Amino acid sequence: MKKILITGGAGFIGSHVVRLFVKNYPEYQIFNLDALTYAGNLENLKDIEAEPNYTFIKADIVDEALMKDLFEQYQFDGVIHLAAESHVDRSISDPLSFIKTNILGTVNLLNAARAVWNGNFEGKLFYHISTDEVYGSLGEEGLFTETTAYDPRSPYSSSKASSDHLVRAYYHTYGMPVVVSNCSNNYGPNQFPEKLIPLAINNIKKMKSIPIYGKGENIRDWLYVIDHANAIDMIFHKGTTGETYNIGGINEWKNIDLIKKMCEVLDRKLEREPGTSASLITFVKDRAGHDMRYAIDSSKLMKELGWKPSLQFEEGIEKTIEWYLENEEWMNRITDGTYEKYYESQYEKR
Ligand code: NAD
Ligand code: DAU
């Protein structure tokens, strides 16, 4: 039986990856290691927590000795590393926690794997999950490819860029089998409502203003989270060691157009007069160093491994909105005092 460590499995993307692996690979033992920070929520995995091939380990990847002990104890064969501080705005107010988790935490995992694998890399893989933000910001034209030079601009993307380089350094220096993927903006169920799409759904539902940074002209490429999880499955099993794969939705939206689209869908679903939700749009102070446009070329992944996004955005956003409306309790439990306090403090600053 293969022992697979998935870090950050209680978070948004991680929980979808854990579910996919637990369900599709009963022959694997899946270990979900997560510190349960504000972003980690085991409720995301309620439906699979009793499965015999699933184990949860509460641990902080910044704890070097603990990572060594856990690798010794469990002898993991594969690592899918998603644990990270993931929100750009938080990285602007508190860069150090990003450096600790995203850089130091990644090196702790690499060192622990290296110590236990001890040069015997047969059947082993360290798969690092990263972001398209490492490539910087695009103008009106062009797409990020796997060979685009790194140009991170926020503390978040700089910490992820650093971790990407370190993972590749362990491949070149120690021969550790690694693979890296860089993905665009994910959306779907279970995303923490500090990120644009769930934040907007929550605010629209509660008739609160929708904060749009700057003029709302920044562009993001959106991918349904299950499509990212499927790409991760494919790359983990069929990707070439030492390679990088870009993952994106071929689905660029200006923030303001995305929000207007969501307002239309929510007016319909909440049976409001057309235009009611859009009246909540509020332009606020721009994010510092706000990257203008991300767009990604996934043709390597599509050609080499046969991956493609399964959902059109119109279908994906409807499904996502429905999920948040049907899972009010999930959202209510998340938006308790702690979250509200953070949200209010961010909002006051603008
Ligand atoms: P998230 O913030 O929802 O979840 C992160 C998880 O990591 C949480 O469960 C948290 O408890 C855990 N964690 C944080 N610090 C930890 C630590 N020190 N030790 C152990 N666990 C810790 O993040 P997400 O949006 O699901 O992103 C997951 C990964 O995918 C990240 O590496 C992120 O950089 C990358 N990524 C995200 C997106 C996106 O759009 N969300 C896109 C591309 C890549
Ligand atoms: O590109 C991949 C990245 O996508 C991931 O690596 C990050 O972990 C993930 O958080 C996401 O980063 P973004 O900064 O693009 O996502 P966010 O949802 O925070 O913002 C999306 C866009 O919306 C961005 O241009 C900023 C803007 N925005 C965001 C918030 C939270 C607003 O206009 N208002 C808001 O309130």
From TrEMBL:
Example GO BP: nucleotide-sugar metabolic process
Entry cofactors: NAD(+)
The keyword NAD is annotated on this UniProt entry: yes
EC number of the protein: 4.2.1.46
Domain NAD(P)-binding: from-to ranges: 5-320
Single Gene Ontology MF annotation: dTDP-glucose 4,6-dehydratase activity
Superkingdom of source: Bacteria
Record keywords: Lyase, NAD
Catalytic activity: dTDP-alpha-D-glucose = dTDP-4-dehydro-6-deoxy-alpha-D-glucose + H2O
Keyword S-adenosyl-L-methionine carried by entry: no
Pfam families per UniProt: GDP_Man_Dehyd (PF16363)
Family per record: Belongs to the NAD(P)-dependent epimerase/dehydratase family. dTDP-glucose dehydratase subfamily.
Protein name: dTDP-glucose 4,6-dehydratase
Protein species of origin: Plebeiibacterium sediminum
Taxonomic lineage of the native organism: Bacteria, Pseudomonadati, Bacteroidota, Bacteroidia, Marinilabiliales
